[in-house]
Acetyl-coenzyme A synthetase (Oncorhynchus kisutch), 662 residues
Amino acid sequence: GAAHNWPSVVQVKEGLTRRDVLVPSRTSYPCGGRAQCTLTRSPGVQCFLRHVGATGVSDHSGLYKFSVNESDRFWGAVARQRLSWISPFHTVQNCDFSQGKIKWFEGGKLNVSVNCLDRHVQTCPERVALIWERDEPGTEVKITYRQLLELTCRLGNLLKRQGVRRGDCVTIYMPPCPLAMASMLACARIGAAHNVVFAGFSSEALADRIRDAQSSTVITVNQGVRGGKVVDLKRTVDQAVQNCPTVQQVLVAMRTENTVPMTDRDVPLEEEMMKEDVVCEPVAMDSEDVLFLLYTSGSTGKPKGLVHTQAGYLLYTSLTHRYVFNYHDGDVFGCVADIGWITGHSYIVYGPLCNGGTTVLFESTPVYPNPGRYWEMVERLGINQFYGAPTAIRLLLKYGDEWVQNYNRSSLKTLGSVGEPINTEAWEWYHRVVGDGRCPVVDTWWQTETGGICIAPRPADPEAEIVPGMAMHPFYGIKPALLDTEVGEVLSSNDSTGALCISQAWPGMARTIHNHHQRFTETYFHPYPGFFFTGDGAHRSKEGYYQIIGRLDDVINVSGHRLGTAELEDVVIYLMVEEDVLAQQLREMVSRSIAKYACPDFIQVVRCLPKTRSGKIMRRVLRKVVERNTDELGDLSTLDDPDSVHEVIRGHRRLRGDGKQQ
Ligand code: WTA
């Protein structure tokens, strides 16, 4: 069995010993340098309006218009209000989509870890910054802002001792745990970039990413613990670094008490960091210095290292965290994503910590030890905002309402969904059963590329309606556009469907693809000149609400009618019948709910679909199978179950081999 104790490090000594807090130099802004635990205390739009200087504006839609029409004034004011600057910026934005040039807050200097830690230690050192919800229920560990700063500083000093310098990139291969978070923040503190690789990825996927990022340092744990099982993460790293000539050292933290083989390259993390000082001078970073790389699997299969920078990213995650979820001071924010995804970066780490919030770091699975896990945790930790993925919601729905109703969920105020379209049935269940019909459900649309939430039902006017399964409204500063995929023109009327683009820059957007700027401009800015192209299709309803219909390259075109995969799946996803009647029933359902033309000619039944570890179906793989291009499947290393592809291929051969429609 696993040892479920985290040794020594979380029992940090009380208090910082040398200097109590690290204070950045004051800026010349009236409120910029002040420590602000008040960031989430503001009563809402009115206070916000005063701060951004939107005079004459009194409601949400007025503020939204101001944010997109006077974007320099809006973002300039918000940046001065919400971030602590070491020196002020001189230019709010300097962007040119045609070259893929995106720069925000040039001239400004700041340190992200100071914004996330020091300024809160100054005002509320004993506030809980993070609750580490470990795999075994009831064994959570709470870490205050003071303790998290101490961990971060020690780690920052250790990284420096190991030769990590400003501008280097450190790869982090760790499950959600305080030292993973502290590692990210330690990089930010000393001016290194981080490259977090999801700790479920294979050694090949990890090696690819280490090589592309040219990391000399990797941080990992001896073993991970998830769903009651022990995973040998250090062993995966050992395999990966064999093919990574740049790697000089691997820092190994102890998540379990089991020893693992250590080589000359390996550094015992806790032992060495405890030798370090608790004070680590934060480096003054330029707004546009790199904060992190995060790899996403591109549609061609070659992963793209998207680059996010300091000030704009931090500002955008903090603002969206505050307003989309209506996060208030003292709330417990529970985002159950993994830190290896952008959702974890933005809404477990940077957004909540920048706001002085209390954030949950979830190590387990939705069904461990049983399907009541999320809601038992909600009760035990008093979670106020719960943010999860449709794939988990759909899974839990199947287990029935009792697993939810067994627990007290009265602390919940807002429920969020992210990652893929949430079908109506799952949305309704989330709202009615999980939220007892009283919590707004925010279906938040965004991407690794956008840095933070771009379209969501909130913020909006108080009491504004929320339509199930719709992301609905653009966030402040986001100006969406739908473009005709054939002629490339802007579709300006409502009740239209097209390629979802964003027509002006916002601070949270990615700046480039690491080492491949040309691929960046070609992917995002060339398809529709003058616009950022998201790759998704969307519908804008008669009322002007946005609904995401899924990746455009997944859209099926049948005699001029475009069908999103989400639209089809919304109809057919919950059918459970015997295989021989399945095909006929599916056809009938699709005809009835969408149209006759949407009826599939072939239906192939599979045990499971090729899915990524985050639950997304890898449709490019399915498309290649159908096109019989099985030699060009691309990178499969991020698949949850690579065998599923071979089964799909075999099944497809059988299906087509029959030569007749089923
Ligand atoms: C999809 C995750 C529908 C979309 C934050 C997007 C969604 C991709 C939604 C990005 C949503 C994300 N409704 N689709 N609410 N949220 N998507 O980079 O196709 O892992 O382009 O970022 O997920 O996935 P990524």
Remarks:
- Confidence is low (pLDDT under 50) at residues 1-43, 658-662.
- The first strand starts at residue 91 and ends at 93.
- Residues 145-161 form the longest helix (17 residues).
- The radius of gyration is 24 Å.
